[in-house]
Amino acid sequence: MPRLRIPVHRSPLYAWFVTAPLAAIAVGMALPLAVARPASVTEVPLAVIFFGLFVAAEAIVLSFTVRRHAVTASLSEIPFLLSLFFLPPSLVLITRIGAMCLVQGWRRFPVVKLCFNVASAAVATPWPR
Length: 129
Fold this sequence. Notes:
With 129 residues, the chain is mostly helical. 61% of the residues lie in helices and 9% in strands. It contains five helices and two strands; from the N terminus they run H-H-E-E-H-H-H. It has a domain at 43-129. The chain has helices at residues 16-36, 44-59, 77-86, 89-106, 111-124, and strands at 61-66, 69-74. The protein has a two-stranded antiparallel ribbon.
C-alpha cells in the first residue's frame, strides 16, 4: 500500500541562503565595472528612456495555454538587447534592476522573492571583459 507524502512547508527565510550569495556576486561584479567605465551625464536621458521601456516590458506578461499547461513570456529581452548596444554596462544594470524593483514592488511580491529576482537578474546580465 503506497504511503501518502506529507507536504513539507519550509520557511521563506531559507531563500536568503541563495539570495545573499547571488547579491554578493552581483555586487562583486558590478563595482569593478562601474569604476572601470563610469557613466557620463550625457547618457542619462537615454537611460531614462530605456528605464521606461524596461518598465513597460516587465509589466506586460504574455500568457499562453498549450495542452493544459500555462506558458508565460516576457518581452524584457527586447529593451535589454537594445540597451546593451546603446548604454554602458553600469547603466544597463541600474535601469534593468530599477525597473524590475518598480514593477515587482507594484505587483506586491514578497520581499524575499523580489530580492531573489533582482539578484538573479543582476547576475544574469552579461558583463564585458
